[in-house]
């Protein structure tokens, strides 16, 4: 597959939470519930949003509260059960993103999801919002954490794209957190951060590009 003349890139990898969908309300509610159930004080929702939306959950528990080992495993298990039973309540597609994905698809550019969210949950979200049709592959973390870092997720997404016959010679990552930048950078891939996600200014400053709005992202990714 050759690079489309309508794009600067041969394929585009999208983060999910904070980039395609606004999942913070559901994540914040359920991780707070899991922490309280484990005997921790009721956490500040803004702190949870800053630490837990985007990065791998075990990493967030370690960095935010110093929780590791069996206690972290119990909290993760509680959270996943509670979050899965909740479905996509507290989640929504960002304004303008569906139209953006349609423009990229119409330009003939293959897209993939590369998310730290467990792959089963990512597929459920995309199915619920009828977004799965836009993506050639969907790659998330594994429940056994054999694939948990963003770099590992990006590597697997690229592998699956190759298997699907996609040219991965000039990919780009679209995300909203430092983990997206670093995960893509581990493979020599540029990242563009979006202005509607959860990344703080000091995080997104490290990206090669920044797009405040979906229209800005389309202008960056597609040749007009």
UniProtKB/TrEMBL annotation:
Its EC number is 3.1.3.18. Keywords: Hydrolase. GO terms for cellular component: cytosol. It comes from the Bacteria. It is an enzyme of class 3 (hydrolase). The keyword Isomerase does not apply. GO terms for molecular function: phosphoglycolate phosphatase activity; protein tyrosine kinase activity. The keyword Hydrolase applies. This is Phosphoglycolate phosphatase.
């Amino acid at each position: 597959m050759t690079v489309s003349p309508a794009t600067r890139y041969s394929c585009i990898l999208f983060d999910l939470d904070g980039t395609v969908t606004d999942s913070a309300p559901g994540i914040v509610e359920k991780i707070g519930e899991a922490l309280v159930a484990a005997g921790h004080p009721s956490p500040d929702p803004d702190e949870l949003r800053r630490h837990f939306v985007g990065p791998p959950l075990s990493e967030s528990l370690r960095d935010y509260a110093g929780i590791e080992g069996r206690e972290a495993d119990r909290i993760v298990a509680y959270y996943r059960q509670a979050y899965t039973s909740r479905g996509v309540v507290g989640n929504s597609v960002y304004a303008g993103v569906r139209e953006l994905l349609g423009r990229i698809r119409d330009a003939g550019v293959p897209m993939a999801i590369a998310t730290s969210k467990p792959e089963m949950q990512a597929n459920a979200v995309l199915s619920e919002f009828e977004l799965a049709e836009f993506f050639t592959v969907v790659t998330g973390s594994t429940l056994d954490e054999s694939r948990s870092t963003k770099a590992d997720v990006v590597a697997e997404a690229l592998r699956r794209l190759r298997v699907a016959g996609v040219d991965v010679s000039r990919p780009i990552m679209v995300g909203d957190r430092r983990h997206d930048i670093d995960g893509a950078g581990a493979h020599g891939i540029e990242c563009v951060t979006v202005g509607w996600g959860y990344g703080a200014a000091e995080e997104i400053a490290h990206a090669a590009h920044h797009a405040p709005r979906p229209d800005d992202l389309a202008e960056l990714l597609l040749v007009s």
